[in-house]
Amino acid sequence: MASLDHGVAIDSRRDAPVESRLANLARAARRLYILRGALSASLGIAAFIIITLIADRMLRLGSGTRAGIMAGAAAALVVFIILQIRALRRIGADPLEFAASLDTVVRGERDRAVQALATLYSLDSAEGSPALREAAVRGAREKLQSLPLEACLDRRGGGRRSIQIAAAVAALAGAAWLAPQTASIWLRRWCALSTIPWPQDTWLEIQGLQNGKLWVPAREAFSLHVSVREGSAVPDAVDVMYQLDESSESRAPLARAGESLFEGELPPVAKRGFLWLRGGDDRVGPIVIETRNRPSIESFDLKTSAPNADKFESIQFTTQDEEVRLLPGTRVRLSARADEEIDDLKISGSTPADFGARQTGEREWEMQWTHRAVCAITLEARSKATGLVSKPRSLTFEILKDSVPRVALQCLKIGERVSPAAKFPCRVEARDDFGLTSLTLEILPGALESAPAEPYKKMELATSAPGEMREQMSVERELELLPLHLAPGTSIHLAASAADNCRTGPQVGRSRDRVLLIVSSEQLLREILARLQAARGRLRVAQTDCREIRDSLGTNPDPATIVKNLQRLRVDERNALSVLRTVESGLGELSCNALIEDGARKQLEKDVLERLDGLTQHQLPEQRVALETATREGLAAGALSTIASRQETIVKEITHILNAMNQWDSFVDLVSHLDEVIQMQTDARKAVHTAMDRGGAASKPGSDKK
Fold first, then answer.
1. What's 544-557 look like in SS3?
2. Is 272 helix (H, G, I), strand (E, B) or coil?
3. Which of 54, 337, 502, 677 has its CB surrounded by the most CB atoms within 10 Å?
């Protein structure tokens, strides 16, 4: 047995020259196959470098994309090398496989050579007649010897492939030598997967971009902000191409918002999208658009401590439904809690100078300040995971001013002129927003334009117990002037004051001063009687008018007369009410100024006031309603007699009231006349005694010395 090449077994009966010739041919074929594979690999690598260089310069491929392409190229190269090795092994292995490989490396007589080799190496072990096998083998050997197998090999092609391989390598080396920076960047970006950028004039940056992803609010239109890196060339325009969800690609220009800032509004995204940017010589993309709900500030915790207080009061709320008013100097701690981990809390608006914020947890922030002015703030939380900003939450903290207590003073049943012996009720009402502590009434001298004087009298009307919050106080107290010994012609001031429990110190509110002029009892009595007499005159006019109405009702009046009587009755009703008010106030002043006895007052109340009240509250209103009904609907059967009877009652009632007032006036006139006579007698007696005392003193010796 002999060997074709690399240990291939050969029958000893075969011709050694044929085997030697075939072994040389196999070695030559392997060299040609290696050159062709090397050329293919060189051209593929060169094409890969050129294509990736151009694509990377134009598209600015990311690290992940480059890593994927390199992995694919390496896998293709490994597969190519494996296939080449397997082909080489076939060329130097079994003669039948070598015969098959000649189809790819031998030109010309390929079919005949393959047929001869197949006959030579297959018939040696085939069954059948030995003579026939020997004849077939001999014919195959003769055919192989006659074929010009060496000439069939493309030996010139091998040299040509060597030159092409050298040219490809030289071209790559020359390109690297001519552009070393480009070659270095390509090697670092593709072999080391570096992020070193390609040299360019314009560099675009997308605001909010995180690790190649742009987070936007789900199902909300969003703004795209693109800036130009400082120091690079600003392009004339920046275009964006985007593909959102399942929609087709769209392209739109961005508007210039500043010298190096471009902005644009993009449609809402439900799940995911992609975008690409182009501006100047920069190309950015694809950028993955991811959606997520905005972060939200879900709750607030407001802790306040009023001035001079030791403890904090806490209020928790989600939204500010009501105004928050705080006293000046209140210490405030405001905690905000978000629904996810936040990276920053932006605070804007009108904030105090000492306003501060600090993060107390992954989702909590705390702000604290001393409240001295109106504070209106807006909070925006930024998500740590996505960089999305929550919708603004606005809070307002007003100034709660502790107002001075409001005090009102009323002197009941008297006018501005009182007698020295007056005794009347005073009503004091006070209100405060944070509670009252005391209520005081003072009687001061009349000359308040000068320096403050000591009060004649000071009365503590009411006080609050410790811890009690009384926002309103109302006290009625009777005030007596007789112990003050006030002389006619002087005046006094009545003033009420109230103190509150303000945190920064008690505040005192004061009512308007009520000025009372002290006059003599005789003078005040004449003034009151004059008002009562004027009221009696108005009542007499009403009496005359009511009599005329009564007389007209007794003659079966027509509708026009009824309308006229109704108008006159309305006037009489108003006059009666005016008389009632005048008599009430006059009787009150007489009683409070000690100008009438209790018996006379009670008689006057019974005969005048009670009857006037019944007249104005019942009789006159009922008669007016009856006349109004008659005016609208006409006089029904029996209605005229009822109206006339009621009118007669009204006339009698007014007459009785006037008689009672006349009797009381006559009595008062008599008493006043007697008082004047008694006063004249008293003055005459004093004058006589004074004259006698002066005469006796003059007749005594040494009186001049005295």
1. HHHHHHHHHHCCCC
2. strand
3. 502
* C-alpha dihedral, 16 to 21 to 22 to 23, nearest 10°: 90
pLDDT in tens, 181-207: 888 888 888 888 777 777 778 888 888
Distance, in Å, from the CA atom of 160 to the CA atom of 142, rounded to the nearest integer, reads 33
- Give the long-range contacts of residues 672-675, CB within 8 A, separation 24 or more: 672/522, 672/525, 675/522
SS3 state at 78:
helix
Q: Residue 112 burial (CB < 10 Å; 0-12/13-18/19+)?
A: middle
Rounded Cα–Cα distance for residues 666 and 672 (Å): 10
Which residue in this structure is represented by tokens 């904090």? 312
What phi and psi, each to the nearest 5 degrees, are found at residue 332? -125, 135
Beta-bridge partner residues of 313 = 304
- The verdict on whether omega for the bond into residue 267 sits within 30 degrees of 0, i.e. cis, is no
Tell me the Cα Rg of the chain: 62
Residues recorded for the chain: 706
Residues whose CB falls within 8 Å of the CB of residue 274, separated by 6 or more in sequence, listed in order: 242, 243, 285, 286, 287, 288, 289
Alpha carbon dihedral 512, 513, 519, 524, in 10-degree steps, equals 20
DSSP structure class, residue 125: S
Where are the extended beta strands (E) located within 259-296?
Answer: 261-266, 272-279, 282-292
Range in 19-33, 229-243, 246-260, 662-676 with the lowest mean pLDDT: 662-676
Are 204 and 230 contacting, i.e. CB atoms less than 8 angstroms apart?
no
